[in-house]
Design goal:
This protein has 388 residues and is of the alpha/beta class. The protein is built from 16 helices and twelve strands.
Length: 388
């Protein structure tokens, strides 16, 4: 049943700011959006096809402002990539290396802990931990890594290991997905990132990342994590060889799982960077596609609390504009991101907290520092306090 307050809000918007477009196909979609109705797969395809990107963005902005007003979230985080050694040979990846090849690395535990400490100067509230599928590292290495981080930084949220990594660790340890996640949670994992989803469509997945778990397995791993009380994010890699139909299929499958579990916090559209990958003949995404993808995501994923503009891949400028196209989150300070920079990203490897705040304010939004679970963070000269 539609919330009466929501209906009043939509009535106010429709009466004071009437929707305008040159694309007649958008009119019935606008009526759905402004009355709080769920969009269909055909609606989503129309949004991808419409030449009126400003109208699509306007609709997404209505939803964004209904949910969050002018608030735009960010956090102070650090990425830790313990190894780039990977058994997979994904055509979309420039990060992974085979063992004993130039550029391959694996951190000793002490090195990983020291890497975490080196980015701790600004009172980091999150460590984002992902890496390759290493053929030799035992499951115990990852449990010890997490325990060591939790012992050294007890107040820092550990967002660790994609669904792909969890499934690989389970296979190597001869454990079920549930048992693997239970042990990771007991060691100190607080939530999971959303990477590795790529595109769920089997036809595309076989061509770009055939060595990874399939889309159904990714979704089942996320379902199990949510059942155990572990929140996660979700992603979609776009701008390679997928079609609009593949993107819509991906979004609808995520929406269906969110209806079931409610465990996803944030959706992050990831723009494909082809440089240094076997797909480097493909063009990079355009700003128009980036903004459209943010907007369509906000309109279709009506049960996802947050849509993130990942500035590392979009560039700070496009991420800033996306705050008027449906995005309400700018990710974080990051500090030394490797995976997308190996694929040719030319953005900085980190931003300072004041840089993110300036970008948000210049977009006419209000910066709100958060922790990983979207609780407000208050900073003074001597303390960092996380709200509830």
């Amino acid at each position: 049943m539609t919330n009466p307050r929501l209906l009043r809000y939509h009535h106010y918007v429709a009466s004071t700011h009437p929707f305008q477009t040159d694309d007649a196909r958008l009119q019935p979609i606008a009526e759905k959006v402004l009355s709080g109705q769920r969009l269909s797969g055909d609606d989503a395809l129309t949004l991808y096809a419409s030449p009126d990107i400003l109208a699509v963005g306007w609709l997404a902005n209505q939803v964004r402002e209904r949910l969050h007003g002018d608030n735009t979230y960010f956090n102070v985080n650090r990425h830790i990539n313990p190894t780039n050694v990977c058994v997979a040979a994904c055509r979309l990846c420039a990060f992974g290396r085979k063992k004993d090849t130039p550029g391959a690395y694996t951190m000793a535990l002490e090195e990983a802990w020291q890497t975490a400490a080196s980015g701790y100067s600004e009172a980091v509230t999150e460590f984002h931990i992902v890496g390759g599928l290493h053929p030799d590292l035992p499951f115990q290495y990852f449990l010890d890594l997490i325990r060591g981080l939790k012992e050294r930084f007890p107040s820092v949220h550990l967002k660790a290991f994609t669904m792909v990594e969890v499934a690989y660790l389970a296979k190597r340890a001869k454990l079920s997905i549930r048992e693997t996640l239970e042990q990771l949670k007991a060691a100190g994992v607080d939530s999971l990132p959303g990477g590795g989803a790529e595109i769920f469509a089997d036809r595309i997945r076989h061509m770009i990342c055939d060595h990874k778990i399939d889309g159904d397995q990714w979704l089942e791993t996320a379902r199990t994590a949510h059942q155990l009380g572990l929140r996660s994010n979700a992603t979609m890699l776009y701008g390679h060889i997928e079609s609009d139909e593949d993107r819509v299929d991906h979004l609808l499958k995520l929406r269906a799982l969110q209806d079931e579990t409610g465990g996803f916090q944030t959706f992050i559209p990831l723009a494909f960077h082809p440089a240094n990958t076997p797909l480097e003949h493909l063009p990079t995404t355009t700003g128009m596609l980036d903004l459209r993808q943010i907007a369509v995501s906000r309109l279709v994923l009506d049960n996802f609390p947050h849509i993130k503009a990942y500035w590392q891949m979009l560039t700070p400028r496009i991420a800033q504009i996306s705050l008027r196209f449906g995005a309400d989150d700018m990710d974080g300070t990051v500090i030394e991101e490797k995976i997308y920079h190996d694929a040719g990203a030319t953005t900085p490897q980190g931003l300072r907290r004041q840089d993110l705040e300036r970008l948000i304010r210049e977009a006419g939004r209000v910066p709100v520092e958060r922790d990983t679970l979207y609780r407000p963070v208050t900073r003074t000269e001597t303390t960092v306090t996380v709200g509830v």
